[in-house]
Structure formats: structure tokens, C-alpha cells
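HUMAN: Spend a minute on the protein record below and explain its fold to me.
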Amino acid sequence: MSVPFILFIVCLGFARAAAVAGDTARELTADHLKVHPRVLEKAWPHLDSPDPAVREAARRTIEAQPFDSWKQRALGETHTQAALEALLALARACPPAQAEDLRPHICEGISTLHLEEMSVAQRLAAVRLTRLACTRLGPPSADERAQMTDLWTHFLPPRTVPGTKPPLLEREIRELLNFLSAQK
């Protein structure tokens, strides 16, 4: 087999995978406004998809379902990527009356994620989720603030060389730590 033929086969495989992911995302988006337990069951496994568009479509579909029908499942999710998406859905869809009670559970969920095993993109999502939880669900308590500060300080790399721009993850962690210290 020639190299161009092999490249063609590889590209064809990627194109098919992208088409399937696109179909899945469109299907989930079509279910977005349907309220039914089967919609939740159909969308949930896609929170762990390698495709960000599919994960977002699944998360938005779940967010559109009655909050109490999936809240405990989201808090109990154990797959890293799915847990990130489920906790994000909780922070985004939480009714204001439940926000103060839910925030400690989301903080606990974030702290139990295996951050050291995450990719940079997943850690970045976790940092942003932490900030969203602390803004959307109300200011963190002193214990939550200390828990999140300890957690993210551990993942803060040494300062970059003066005059250079730090990587995005480092900037986001530093901004989060500044935000948390200002919440006192």
C-alpha cells in the first residue's frame, strides 16, 4: 500500500468519526426541549464523550430536565470528564433556592476529582468550574474557600520568568486564588 492511500484511509476514518459525533450532537440538541426520563438516560453517557460538542449538547440537554431528577446522579458521577460536565450542569442549572445548600457539594466534588491525572484542558475546566460555583451559587464559606485555596495552590506551578506571559492554566489558577482571597 502506498503512503497516500494509507493517509486517505486514516482521513476517511476521522471524517466518519466526526460525522458520527456531529450526528450525536444534533440528536441531543433536538432532544434539548423534551422533558422525559428517557432523554436523561440517552444524554448522560455522552457527558464522557471525547468530542466537546457532544459533551456540551449532552450537558445542555441534561440541564433542561427537572433539576431534582438528576442532581444526585451528577454529584455521584465518577468518570472524570463526565463528572466535570455534570458538576458544571449543576452549577448552571441550580435553582436559586438550592444554591447555598448545593455549593458545598460541588466544592467537595471538585476536590475529589483526580486533578493530578487530568489533562491541562480538564484542569482548566475544573478551575473555571470552581469559579463559576463560587459566583453563581453564592460566596464560598470560609471552609470552602480554604478547601479550594489549598486544592488549587497545590497545582500552581512556580512563577514564570519575569517578562514572559504565563500559560493559560497558571493565569487562571492565579486569578481564581485572587478571587477566593477577596471573598473574605
Remarks:
- Residues 97-156+170-184 form one domain.
- DSSP finds nine helices and no strands in the chain.
